[in-house]
Design a protein that fits this description.
mainly alpha, 0% strand, 115 residues
């Protein structure tokens, strides 16, 4: 025996069609999918933040390394210059007096060029 729709509505119940049930099922599936995508977005966001902080650290380290390399290059250049000067002064002491002035002039030109 079927109950008329009006008496179902009055009692707070409704007759649900198959289409309504399919729509509710579809809404539930979409809700589950939406929640899954939100979780994925959160995971991606946290991974992105971790990568960004890693990049910052690496950039900082690279900058420090570049400064260190430049400092070392400068120290090496200075040491090489001092070595050249030491060699020249040693050569000057060994050179007989008549040729010393020519060697000094050459060393001053060389020093001017390398500076």
């Amino acid at each position: 025996r079927r109950t008329p729709a009006r008496t179902l509505a009055e009692s707070g119940r409704t007759r649900r069609s198959e289409k309504d049930l399919m729509d509710e099922d579809h809404v539930a599936q979409l809700t589950v999918e939406r929640d899954r995508l939100r979780r994925k977005d959160v995971e991606r966001e946290s991974a992105l933040k971790a990568l960004e902080s890693t990049i910052k650290v690496l950039r900082r380290e690279a900058t420090q390394s570049a400064v260190s390399v430049e400092t070392l290059r400068n120290k090496l250049r200075k040491a090489q210059d001092e070595n050249v000067q030491l060699r020249l002064s040693t050569e000057l002491r060994r050179t007989p007096a008549p040729y010393r002035s020519m060697l000094e002039a050459t060393s001053k030109r060389t020093q001017h060029i390398t500076s």
